[in-house]
Specification:
Number of helices: 23
CATH superfamily of the largest domain: Thiamin diphosphate (ThDP)-binding fold, Pyr/PP domains
Largest sheet: 6 strands, parallel
CATH class of the largest domain: Alpha Beta
Strand content: 15-25%
Distance between the termini: 57 Å
Radius of gyration: 25 Å
Helix content: 25-40%
CATH architecture of the largest domain: 3-Layer(aba) Sandwich
Shape: globular
Length: 619
C-alpha cells in the first residue's frame, strides 16, 4: 500500500480539501475553507497545516461562537451542499463554540468543528486551560460538545484518523443526520507524523441521494388527501433544502391546497400567491392560524413541528385532524401520530402531483385562503405605512427595509421581537430571501450570519436586522467583514432594552422587570433610572463600519439608498419605540407562577389555564 508521511493535522486538511458532494448531477467542493482563532493547542498543528495548504482558505475571525454562526449561515444559503470548518484552541476557545454548535444541530445545518484538546500523552497534565477530574483522566471540556453534536470523536492515535474522517463526512453530508460534527484533536497528536495511505486523500464525491417514498405509503397519502375537505400544507425548511420549491408551487396550482410556512420554510411560496397563508403557529397570520385550526388534514413538509409551529400544541383544533409528514428524517415524520412519508420532499411532491391529477379542494376552502391572503396583505400595508411619529415603530422599519429591498435580497434575523414581526410581515419573493435562525433563537447570530450569507451569495444584498440587545452581545464580525472586503448592511434598531422579553414579561404580569437598559436607581434599588448612554454609532464606527444615523422613515430610506450605493459594510442606526408592536393571533406557552403576591400575575394565570385546555395530544 502506497503511503505518505504527514502529521495528523496535515492529513486532516489534505483529506477535507478533497471532499466533494453531488446532487442531481451538480458537483462542488464541500468545504469552502476554514474559520479560526489560533491559540495554543491548535497553532502548531492545524495552524501549520493550513499555512502549507493555501488552497484551503483560512479566515481570521474575532469570536469563536460567531465563526460557527457564519459557517451555519453559509451552509443554510447553500442548501447544506457546502460549509466551513471552524477551528479553535483548547479551553475557552473551544467552549465558546458550544452555542453555535447547538444552533447548527438544532437547525440541521452541517458544520465541522475542530477544537484543540489536551495532551493525549498526559505527561505534562494539567496543561493550561485543562479541566481536571478526580474520577477520570479521559475527559476534557470538549466532552461538552457531545450532546450538541451529531457525531463526536477524539483522535488519540494518528491511525484513528483513517476511520474517523470518513464518518465525519458521512454525517455532514447526510440529509437525515446532518448538524454539528466535532473532531477533537489533542495538541500533541496533531503534530505527530504517520504513514497514511495515499488512498485516503483521493478525491471523493459524496452523492446526496433523494430517498423515494414507499409505494404503499404514498398511495395511502394520496387517498387521505382525496378524502380530506380542508387540507393545509405546512411547509418547513426541508422544502427549501430539498430544492422542492417549484414542485410545491406546482402541486398548489393543481390542487388549490393552502400553504402556511414555518420560520425555516418561509420563502417556499411568494407572499402574493393566492394560496399563501403566510406564517403559521405562535407568530402566525390570521389565515395561517384559522385555517390550520380548522384543517382536517395537515400535510407537513420538512418541518420538525416546534412549539412555535404548533402554537404549543394548540394550533390544530379539528377533532378529526390527521397528519401526513413528508420528511427525510424518520424521527420527524412520525410526529403527531402522522402517516410517515420518509422521503425527500422533491421526490414525494412529484409523486403527489402525479397522483392528485383529478383532485382539487372545494371552492369555498380555496376562496377562504385567497381572502385571507388578500386581507393580510392589506393589513401589512397598513403596518408598513409611515405614521410620522417619533420614535418610529419596529414594524415601520421592517416595512421600509422590505419595500426598499429587491426580490433576491436577503433579510437576516434571529432573536427578540423582530423575528415574530418578520415572520408575519415580510413579503418574501425568493426562497433564500428570508433567513431566520429560530430553532435556537440565538442572540448574536445576526451579524456573523450576515457575513456567511454574503460569502455564500455575493450577488445578493444582505440586510441584517438586529436589536440593541443582540448587537451588544455579538458584533465582532464587523471587523472580519471589513478585513475581507465583504459588504453587508446592518440595520440596528435601538429601543433601549430587551423588547421581546419585556413584552413577554408584561404579558405574564411581571411588568417588564429587569428588561430595560437603565441605570440602577439608588433610592429604589431597581433598574429603572435614566437610559444608559451607549453610543452605538461610535461603537460600530470604531469597528470599521461606515455608519449612518436615521430617526424617521424618510431618513431611513435615504440611508438605505446610501448603503446600497456603497461597497463598504454599513450600519444604519435608528431608535424605535419600545412598546408599539403587532397583534398576535395565537398562543405560545410560557409557564406562569401558580401563586404570586402580584394581582397582575394572578390574572394572567387564569388566562393561562384556559389556554392549556386547548392543548392536544395526537395519538
Amino acid at each position: 500500500m502506497d503511503t505518505i508521511r504527514l502529521t495528523v493535522a496535515q492529513a486532516t486538511i489534505k483529506f477535507l480539501k478533497n471532499q466533494y458532494v453531488n446532487r442531481d448531477g451538480v458537483e462542488n467542493k464541500f468545504f469552502a475553507g476554514c474559520f479560526g482563532i489560533f491559540g495554543h493547542g491548535i497553532v502548531a498543528g492545524i495552524g501549520q497545516a493550513l499555512q502549507q495548504n493555501p488552497d484551503f482558505k483560512y479566515y481570521q475571525t474575532r469570536n469563536e461562537q460567531s465563526m460557527v454562526h457564519t459557517a451555519a449561515a453559509y451552509a443554510k444559503m447553500k442548501n447544506r451542499m457546502e460549509t466551513f470548518v471552524c477551528t479553535t484552541s483548547i479551553g475557552p476557545g473551544a467552549t465558546n463554540m458550544l452555542t453555535g454548535a447547538a444552533a447548527a444541530t438544532i437547525n440541521r445545518l452541517p458544520v465541522l468543528l475542530i477544537p484543540g484538546d489536551i495532551f493525549a500523552r498526559r505527561n505534562v497534565a494539567p496543561v493550561l486551560q485543562q479541566l481536571e477530574s478526580q474520577t477520570t483522566q479521559d475527559i476534557s471540556v470538549n466532552d461538552c460538545f457531545k450532546p450538541v453534536s451529531k457525531y463526536w470523536d477524539r483522535i488519540n492515535r494518528p491511525e484513528q484518523l483513517i476511520t474517523s474522517l470518513p464518518e465525519v463526512m458521512r454525517v455532514l453530508t447526510s440529509p437525515t443526520e446532518t448538524g454539528t460534527v466535532t473532531l477533537a484533536l489533542p495538541q500533541d497528536v496533531q503534530a505527530e507524523a504517520f504513514d497514511f495511505p495515499i488512498e485516503l486523500f483521493r478525491k471523493r464525491v459524496w452523492n446526496i441521494q433523494r430517498i423515494r417514498p414507499d409505494k404503499k405509503v404514498i398511495k395511502t397519502a394520496i387517498e387521505l388527501i382525496k378524502k380530506s375537505t380542508k387540507p393545509v400544507i405546512i411547509s418547513g425548511g426541508g422544502t427549501i433544502y430539498s430544492g422542492a420549491v417549484a414542485e410545491l408551487n406546482q402541486l398548489v396550482d393543481q390542487t388549490g391546497i393552502p400553504v402556511a410556512e414555518t420560520f425555516a420554510g418561509k420563502g417556499a411560496m411568494q407572499f402574493d400567491k393566492p394560496e399563501s397563508l403566510g406564517a403559521v403557529g405562535a407568530t402566525g397570520t390570521p389565515g395561517g392560524v384559522e385555517m390550520v385550526k380548522e384543517a382536517d388534514l395537515i400535510i407537513g413538509i420538512g418541518t420538525r413541528y416546534s412549539d412555535f409551529t404548533t402554537a404549543s400544541k394548540t394550533a390544530f383544533q379539528n377533532r378529526d385532524v390527521k397528519f401526513i409528514n413528508i420528511n427525510v428524517t424518520e424521527f420527524d415524520s412520525h410526529k403527531h401520530s402522522a402517516l410517515p412519508v420518509v422521503s425527500d420532499a422533491k421526490e414525494t411532491l412529484r409523486e403527489l402531483i402525479d397522483g392528485l391529477v383529478d383532485f382539487r379542494v372545494e371552492d369555498s376552502w380555496h376562496k377562504r385562503a385567497i381572502n385571507y391572503n388578500q386581507s393580510w396583505d392589506k393589513k401589512v400595508s397598513e403596518y408598513y405605512t409611515d405614521k410620522k411619529q417619533l420614535p418610529v415603530s419596529q414594524v415601520e422599519v421592517v416595512g421600509a427595509v422590505n419595500n426598499f429591498s429587491e426580490p433576491k435580497d436577503v433579510v437576516i434575523c434571529a432573536a427578540g421581537s423582530l423575528p415574530g414581526d418578520l415572520h408575519k410581515l415580510w413579503r418574501t419573493q425568493d426562497p433564500k430571501g428570508f433567513h431566520l435562525e429560530y430553532g435556537y433563537s440565538t442572540m448574536g447570530y445576526e451579524i456573523a450570519a450576515g457575513l456567511g450569507a454574503k460569502m455564500a451569495c455575493p450577488e445578493r444584498e444582505i440586510y441584517v436586522m438586529v436589536g440593541d440587545g443582540n448587537y451588544l452581545m455579538n458584533n465582532h464580525e464587523i471587523i472580519t467583514a471589513i478585513q475581507e472586503g465583504i459588504k453587508i448592511t446592518i440595520i440596528l434598531l435601538n429601543n433601549n432594552g430587551f423588547g421581546s422579553i419585556g413584552g413577554l414579561s408584561e404579558s405574564l404580569g411581571s411588568k417588564r422587570f429587569g428588561t430595560k437598559y437603565r441605570y440602577r436607581n439608588s433610592e429604589t434599588g431597581e433598574i429603572d433610572g435614566t437610559i444608559l448612554p451607549v453610543d452605538f454609532m461610535q461603537n460600530a464606527m470604531s469597528l470599521g463600519a461606515k455608519v449612518i444615523g436615521a430617526d424617521t422613515i424618510e431618513s431611513l430610506n435615504a440611508a438605505l439608498k446610501k448603503a446600497k450605493e456603497s461597497d463598504e459594510t454599513t450600519l444604519i442606526y435608528i431608535e424605535t419605540d419600545l412598546i408599539k408592536g403587532i397583534d398576535g393571533y395565537a398562543w405560545w406557552e410560557v409557564p406562569v407562577a401558580q401563586v404570586s403576591e402580584m394581582d397582575s400575575v394572578k390574572e394572567v394565570y387564569k388566562s393561562y389555564t384556559e389556554h392549556k385546555k386547548n392543548q392536544k395530544y395526537y395519538l
